[in-house]
Amino acid sequence: MTSSQPEEEELARQVSGExxxxxxxxxxxxxxxxxxxxxxxxxxxxxxxxxxxxLEKLSKLGLVDEQYDGTFLVRSKSFGILKLYVRTGRWILxxxxxxAAIFATMASGFLVLALTQSEPFFFWVALVISLGGLFYSIYxxxxxxxxxxxx
Amino acid sequence: MPIYSTxxxxxxxxxxxxxxxxxxxxxxxxxxxxxxxxxxxxGALRQQIVYYFxxxxxxxxxxxxxxxxxxxxxxxxxxSSPGLTPASNQTLKMTGHSDSFVIxxxxxxxxxxxxxxxxxxxxxxxxxxxxLVAVGGPTHTLFDAVIASHVGNQxxxxxxxxxxxxxxxxxxLKTTMLKNGGTSLYPSYLSQNTTDPDAIIDGWNSWLTGxxx
Lengths: 151, 213
Description:
The complex is a heterodimer of chains A (151) and B (213). Chain A is built from six helices and five strands, in the order H-H-E-H-H-E-E-E-E-H-H. With 151 residues, chain A is mainly α. Chain A has a three-stranded antiparallel beta sheet. Chain A has a two-stranded antiparallel sheet with strand order 4-5. The radius of gyration of chain A is 21 Å and the shape is elongated. The model of chain A has no long low-confidence stretch (mean pLDDT 85). By secondary structure, chain B is of the alpha/beta class. Chain B has helices at 6-37, 59-69, 89-95, 106-110, 116-127, 141-148, 197-209; strands spanning 49-53, 75-78, 100-105, 131-135, 168-177, 183-192. Chain B has a six-stranded mixed beta sheet, sandwiched between helices. The radius of gyration of chain B is 24 Å and the shape is elongated. The interface between A and B is medium-sized, with 30 and 24 residues.
């Protein structure tokens, strides 16, 4: 962990700190493989050269591998803000989505208990707390989701 | 950024749901334990002199009287064993007060609905504002016994029989102030659908304070 820490810091500085480089990396994470032309069209860059510049930068940092046919293949690494997300297929989800699932289940369960138990006071209290947790985790999930640059 | 397959992502969501369910299911015994470890509210019941007729084998009745007597409210045992009458001079003198609270079992009262001595006892107790509760067994017979005692003569309201055998029933002629400054009696019924002695005692307290009944 200590040996990878400087590398992570360097990646965070070189990629997370550069808006367009991060956009290209996120786009590559979503698609898995793309050409420079594909990156240029998807992200609306003015020229393919700009896309090549960012892809080569990512390649130097070991985040993409250039293939024999000119396309680039992504290598998934966890650094900077990206540590707060998980990826599945084309989806990049904030980790807080799992907290939302926990609180949603709790809120549903406590609602059922509050409506069916003979002494429901504590279940109403638990329901209110769970709803508070649910709304906060949804709010944070939404904030994290929009924190990533569009790609 | 960790890469999860769709299967792993679904699995993680299921684990999250499971954690939520464990929290909900785990709260049930915790809340039950808290509710039942809390002593019942007995503020109003402490203002009463509590009597019970002790010759009975009804489990709920015995559990309730035992619970009441273990550090909550002093309880005085009345004797109605064969050969003795609930309408003895001593019993009538002791219980004929507005702060008397008499506990019987449903079986005890069922056997005595038509007994003249019991009717005298009930009339003496209820007409002076005493309270009567029946715990366990055929508790609806309490209202039959109250009607048979003719204590209804004391109130302009009709006393109705209650057909259901709730775990606990009760009857009390409450005193109310009239606009002309006089007083009047009106019937107050108690029906409790719980077999938890603490909840029954809690319900008596609420009944006395006018929250229920």
